[in-house]
Amino acid sequence: MALKQEELLRDIQKCFNNLNVEEDKKETVILREREDSIDIRCTGFPDFTEDFRQIVKAGWLEKTPPKGGKIYQRRWVQLDSEYLRYFQTIKEVYSKRMVSLGSVDKVVSVGDSRFELHSQSRTFLFRAESTQERNDWVCCIEKILSDRKHSLEPRNLFFRNGSVNISFEGYMEMLSPRTKVYTLINKDKLFLFRSHEEYFQGVGITDIDMRMANVRDGENKRSFTLTTPYRAFSFMVDSESEKQRWSEALKECVSRALSCDGLCESIWRVPSNRMCADCSSSMPEWASVNLCVLLCEKCAGAHRSLGQNVSKVRSLKLDERVWTDDLIRVFLLLGNGKANQFWGANIPPSESLCSSAHSEQRLEHITAKYKDGKYRKYHTLYGQQEALNRALCSAVQSGDLLETLSLLNCGVDINCNTGIPEFPTPLSLAKRSGQTVQAELLMQNLNSESFTPVDKDASIRSQSGYLFKTASSAKPITDHKTKTDFSQRWCSLGDGMFSYFKSEQSHHKCGGMKTSEIICLSVNSPGKHGYEHTFELYSEEGRVYLFGSDDGSIIKNWIQAIAMAVLPPALFDVCGTCDRLGRLRCTEGNHGIGWFCLSGFKLQVLLEDNVQIIDLRKLLTLNLSDSAGSMVLVWRGGPLHLLADRRPHFVGWQTFIQQRSGAGDQPLSQQQLTDLGVPVIIDRCLDHVTRYGLMSSGIYRKNGVNSHVTKLLERFQNDARSVTLLESDYSVDDVASTLKRFLREVKDGVFNGQENNDNWLRAAGLENRAEKIKRYQILLSNLPDVNRETLKALIHHLVCVQHLSDENQMTIRNLGIVFGPTLFHTDGTDVTGSQVVEELIQNYCSIFNVSESDLKRQLNMTSVILNKHKSQRPLSRTPSSTICAVYLEKKTEGAEVLVQVTADMTVVKLVSVVLELKGIQQASEEFWSCYEVLEKDDMERTLHYQERVLPIYFSLSCHSHLLIKRNPYIISIMRYLENVENLCKTGPLRVCEVKSESSKTFHSRHCELSGTTFRLHKEQQGSQCEREYPVKELKLYHGCRSKMHPPTPWGLILIYDKQQWYLCCENEDELTEWTAVFYSIQYNGDIWPSW
């Protein structure tokens, strides 16, 4: 056994001795003892991130330099259970600084988005990109500090209790960069410190994992070099004897790190595990942890050629940390014997592999066995997807690992829905059932291709062939490339690399990149360049590569192969069908990264571990470039912040997203849409006419001002989402004419083309009414979704208009005369189009499958409003009664409640009417209020129950609305006032004067609310009064304006004329007390009726 260890060690040493580790001899030799950190750059980077330590949180932060510098430095920061480390870049392996959490006394939030880490020797100040991100860091650090409180060794602040095993220590001089460092060996790592004092203070520079290190002599007798796969560390000591002691200690550490015989002996206890699963060589020291087979070194090399997504090869000796107790139990319970009952069930003797097979034979056999599944034992449910998924849900709750292995590699969906909301995936189900070994097997296969359906062609994961390529560029390719700009290249994709050669026979690579470095793949529209079909690859370095071919099938295969090589498995379903894919920096993503696939109008987004689908046409807002240059998409699922990136792929994403978010000069299906699938322009126009024009005489027959209509239509076509229709800006006739012009001019019309127009017109000629209605229903069902929803919304609106025909003179016939030519794009000489519109209005419920009772209820409500309107005809421009739109509990699309509000209607009456209309009975101890909601500022004002509704309604801006909901504070307010003898409130509050959107500075001020006055003092109690306002002239709003980064979520906003003050309370009780006193003073104690 010792002999084998020495051979392995020699092989590793030989490998690293061949690495080019020449140091830069031109570097200026300057001792930099005064610098805070040492710049240890890697000369090579790992191909993939290995889980050396359990990272709790990682991300970009800005930190202040030592000695109190003012310029922040951007650093990649990692937090684990023992240390906080920060690195120069995200790729670096060796940190610039590492702070032991054992030396940290506390973590404190300061300012808007900063926090301080207080250690024994120094305070580290970090700044995050947002307050939320700062809070996440503080929360994670506080939790670790809390967990460590009782487990630290009092005399050592750097190492966790029980982890101190220092075998050698002392000062050495590092030669590149040249500086003196205190160094110690603890277990299997070498730690670097600026000084011995810093070690005792719990602050270090970095640590070096000795498992992959090699020690060799330096250029002189007192120096030596420690070589790792990522860089070489050169050290010099004071004497040859000291160098000898250091070399021996480091080599012993390497040998100790490589030794892991206990694991081998444990797994080899199972007889079948003593032979390689593929060639039967003895004592295999490698394993494929997802395929569950033990391998000899030669077969492990063939498995690595399959790629990490097929076979995850790990060493029993070198990868000690991978081998958890549950993973070891997987190999003890399955073993090569049971695993080969599945993988090798059908291997004919002529195709079996022997231990003397050469490398080509091994690769061919192993590819056929595991990647192609040639010899596997197919599950009895193979091909029956739902049955396979149900079988997996059952298996993971049992101890049958072989059944689970078989299902995972016969087409089951590893993330299938279990049907149990609390445990939606097989993994969660296994954990719930206490089957930790099953859970381990599932986790090892989560990102593996082995569980994908086997009927997919395995060859799509690799590709080779001739393509035509242009020279790479550092800028987006916007100009047309002719065929003369392209050169033919042999391209190859496989083993995590995309490479291209001058010809198939050439061994010299012209260029290439790792698939992990491809950050974007974009498919061009046919004919954009000289070759009919082209695609672009964007690299992490900011280069753009253009490839093309006249054969569309060739390009399609390449796109599918590259997509599967680049994307996470959760997005494999879109491979080959998307127009653009890749990763972007995203604040909502996992470690600041999100994966995006754009196909048509659908943007699939992978954040954390779930895929969300966003219809770009239905975005609520789209800001292509905010103040920081970032792109912000707001949809019903919330905001999505895509951080600005100077590399060329980001501009392309902006262009694609803008194009796919809807355009006003396109057919209905390509317009900007509401959440219900109706074009925004149509929805806004119908809403405006419903609010202000239902009783306007001759609505839709009268024309608006042509210049106003043209201007409004242009605004809608440029960006419909940004258009807000105010009654003061546009008359109902202007808006109605804009709607008619849009419907007449929109491409393909509402009925989706001339051929469909003719079908509808022919249906109108049927004499049998029942047959005609059925034909209309069929034609309606054949329309695209957007056209169908648009027609339904329009006809529903016309039904309401004709119901008020006694007032507006727009009968069914008149509406047919107006909208027949408009919808069918005719000149009006043929009345058939008008007939179709009339029949759609008359038979609205039958054709559109709408409940007649629901429609009747709406029309009856309209009739009541009409009768009141006739008896209370307004005498001035501001009506004494009007139809007001209010919302119940929350504002959602189509959820508004239309109420006839008279001039004397109070808030309490409005609440009563709305609750009655919705059939809601108020329970005891349940109180409802009406709120004025300012959407843009995230704040709301509780209206007093005696306030008149109409003046408030007419004062609302386009970003405001009235909302009726339960009042959760009124009981607390009234009970507080019952126990207060002296009605006043004083104390410190965090205050910010809101002068602009950039106002974010909060100061502690002493505030006083007494008598009839609110006073604001400069500092503490007794100081000079800075501002004084009469309470009855103030408006009090509640809210948390997140854009201002308030220190607490309990905010009060006071508005006096054009001045605004944002006050932050420390807790909810304090908020209630200030509100109670304010209301009591403002309303003379009459806060709530009959309390």
UniProtKB/TrEMBL annotation:
Coiled coil: none annotated. It comes from the Eukaryota. Keywords: Cytoplasm, GTPase activation, Metal-binding, Phosphoprotein, Repeat, Zinc, Zinc-finger. It is found in: Cytoplasm. GO terms for molecular function: GTPase activator activity; phosphatidylinositol-3,4,5-trisphosphate binding; zinc ion binding. Residues 880-969 form the Ras-associating domain. The keyword Zinc applies. One of its GO terms (cellular component) is cytoplasm. One of its GO terms (biological process) is signal transduction. Its main location: cytoplasm. The keyword Cytoplasm applies. It holds the Pfam family ArfGap. PROSITE patterns: ARFGAP (PS50115), PH_DOMAIN (PS50003), RA (PS50200), RHOGAP (PS50238). Residues 261-387 form the Arf-GAP domain. Residues 54-146, 165-255, 460-567 form the PH domain. Residues 671-848 form the Rho-GAP domain. InterPro entries: Arf-Rho-GAP_ANK-PH_domain, ARFGAP/RecO, ArfGAP_dom, ArfGAP_dom_sf, PH-like_dom_sf, PH_domain, RA_dom, Rho_GTPase_activation_prot. This is ArfGAP with RhoGAP domain, ankyrin repeat and PH domain 1a. It comes from Cyprinus carpio.
